[in-house]
Amino acid sequence: MADLLITHIKGLVQVREATPAPVSGAAMNELPILQDAFVAIEDGRISSFGPMHTLPSSLTANESIMATGRFVFPSFVDSHTHLVYAASREEEFVMKLKGATYADIAAKGGGILNSAAKLRAMSEEELFQRSLPRAWEIIATGTGAVEIKSGYGLTVADEMKMLRVARRIGQETPLTVKTTFLGAHAVPKEHNKEKYIQLVIEEMIPAVATEKLADYIDVFCEQGFFTVEETIRIVEAGKKYGMRPRIHANQLHRSGGVQAGVKTGAISVDHLENVGDEEIQLLKNSGTMPTALPGAAFFLNLSMPPARQMIAEGLPLAIASDYNPGSSPSGNMPLMISLACIRMKMTPEEAMNAATMNTAYALDLLQTHGSITKGKQANLFITKPIPSVAYVPYAYGASLVDTAILNGKVIRES
Ligand code: NIG
Ligand code: FE
């Protein structure tokens, strides 16, 4: 007997028999959809699915939902966020509207250092209470698994505080959470850069590893932040403690971040607003997932990554939100998909693959997340009645998620 049975689904999206690899190149435009379908859930996993005419009459369930006119999608996997933070920064947003650049604001002690000052002054409990609603907010817009970075602490104690809060979000909400240590996000005012890098390598990384607080290590490889050489030094130190690299690369300049990521075996390189042929060639067959963050590029008015060229060259591409108070104050994955379609000319099918299968790969979650596959974790959502899959990016800003189901359980509270 199933725990939950969803029947008469207009379109069951992203059905895969098996998902051994992420989707690349032309295959990104293939999004398998079963029409007039059912899906059954047992013990938190997808136990079976198929067309309605194959639904066995013997298949009974504790709870049934009729999804007539509605689509069912696998939950989004958001592989890049900074959703643990103390406070919003709309005052900087207004400065930017009046002409200040991201770099101007950072140079004046705003930006990341502004967030760090606020976070250091806040208790771990309050930081958790401030961050928790953001976790529920992304659940409501269809996310089921999320990566959360540190990087607004910039001291041993405050980086650990952030990562503990991130881990606690994974324990106290139904989200699957992966964590990333981003001590090298900016150099705090009280240190010179070399001293700070030593602190990151010699104290922060070992301390974070002792409490098993981070799955990955990240560096903001960018002019005015950390160079390629520094990035490599820092992530190599993290690798010794079992943290695989993922890198903030090529956001504001052609920083060499992609080269640093591929060289160190990063699982992903993220941002990529400034890449050219050299980076695209390097990424081929590298195992490193190129990840676009269209919300951040939109919010900062940057050019978008060359998605069409990347896909034409056979690369995979992932899309994540970069949810953070400075450059992307939204974790709404349907909106990211709209931006990917509108601004990067991705098809709705490509954007869906980018935000499910490919982000699952980028978090080492492809075995359990990112598609409707027998045995995978039952993370999915039922839409409101909608005419087609393309309607999701088309109706930008609309909230089309009706019912989220995580670990097989219908989410009823927040
Ligand atoms: O991914 N680029 C670096 N870090 C963040 C922004 C952080 C901030 O401004 O608070 C990003 O865009
Ligand atoms: Fe980021």
Structural class: alpha/beta
The rounded Rg comes to 21 Å
Low-confidence stretches: none
Q: Tell me about the biggest sheet? A: 8 strands, mixed
Strand tally is: 16
What is the strand content? 15-25%
Tell me the count of domains: 2
Second-tier CATH architecture of the largest domain: Alpha-Beta Barrel
Q: Number of helical segments?
A: 15
What is the CATH top level name of the largest domain?
A: Alpha Beta
How is the CATH topology of the largest domain named? TIM Barrel
In whole angstroms, the N-to-C terminal distance is: 28 Å
CATH superfamily of the largest domain: Metal-dependent hydrolases
What is the overall shape?
A: globular
Bound molecules: N-(iminomethyl)-L-glutamic acid, fe (iii) ion
Can you give the mean pLDDT?
97
Question: Into which percent range does the helicity of residues fall?
Answer: 25-40%
What does it look like?
- It is a single chain.
- The chain has 414 residues and is α/β, with parallel strands linked by helices.
- It has two domains: 2-73 and 372-411, Roll (Urease, subunit C, domain 1), CATH 2.30.40.10; 77-362, TIM Barrel (Alpha-Beta Barrel), CATH 3.20.20.
- Helices cover 35% and strands 22% of the residues.
- It contains 15 helices and 16 strands.
- The strands form two sheets. Strands 1, 2, 3, 4, 5, 14, 15 and 16 form an eight-stranded mixed beta sheet that branches. Strands 6-7-8-9-10-11-12-13 form an eight-stranded parallel beta sheet.
- α7 (228-239) runs parallel beside α8 and α12 (333-344) crosses α13.
- The chain is globular.
- The protein starts with a strand and ends with a strand.
- The model has no long low-confidence stretch (mean pLDDT 97).
- Fe (iii) ion is lined by residues 80, 82, 248, 322, 324.
- Residues 111-112, 115, 220, 248, 251, 296, 322, 324-327 line the site of N-(iminomethyl)-L-glutamic acid.
